[in-house]
Structures
1.
Amino acid sequence: MSDIHLLKILNLGLFVFHTSWIAFNCVGWAWRRTRRWQLLTLTLTALSWFGLGIWYGWGYCPCTDWHWQVRSRLGYADPPSYVQLLVEELTGIALTLEAANSLAVGTLMLAGVLSLVLNVRDLTAQLNKTADN
């Protein structure tokens, strides 16, 4: 297999993985069985953005970094934000960096609040059920 074929496979794989991660972060709170996992992936995302971001720049994401390296070797010139690429690829709408960042942070915050509220509710219900037995 040639390097170009491998890079194309990596590009597709990273697009699917990263987009799935984002989608799960956005909606994983909706199902009781996935809430704890979604809270974990959301926490890892926030730690990357704000923890690793101290050294690599606000909003740093290893998935984006790796994907951009692959796409650069394929000859793509990508925007600064993965959200910009994702929205344009899926809808054809070109977001400004500011709009993409606002969308990303707003979605992270909303999903985080929903996840925390529902996970605390689930834990409280489980503790109450255990106490009743």
Note: The helical segments are 3-27, 35-56, 62-73, 82-91, 97-132.
2.
Amino acid sequence: MKKMLIILLIIAFLTPATAYAQNSDQSSSQGDVSGGEAYNPDYNVLPIALALIMLYLISYLLYDSKILRKVRYKQIWSIVLVGSMLISGITGIILVLITDYGVRFNLNFNLLFWHVETGIIMAVVLFFHIHIHRNKFKRILKA
């Protein structure tokens, strides 16, 4: 039953992802305004979140089917969390050096974009981390 639910969730996440991909060109050119602020198509919150959720559900399905060991399952998502934190943290420090101290780096890419993108990854994977370690969190919150 659990496997069927996970497969249905994966299918449910695929549907809005394809609709988003089809409509992203139209909405970015129209300049939609909602809530007084213009939509910023530069950051990919929805595609990143949906892709990570699908990957997590697939890895959980592999773990639940005993194809993936529990240790490896935890390691994968811990590495993603730590990697995104490191990239987001390092780019954040570089951004602080640039804005507050006027330090200049010869960089050919948008540092703020990658800082935000890895921050989105980190925020989504944080919920996976809480799910993986939910029993430990329950014990901590009870104390």
Note: Residues 26-36 have pLDDT under 50 and may be disordered.
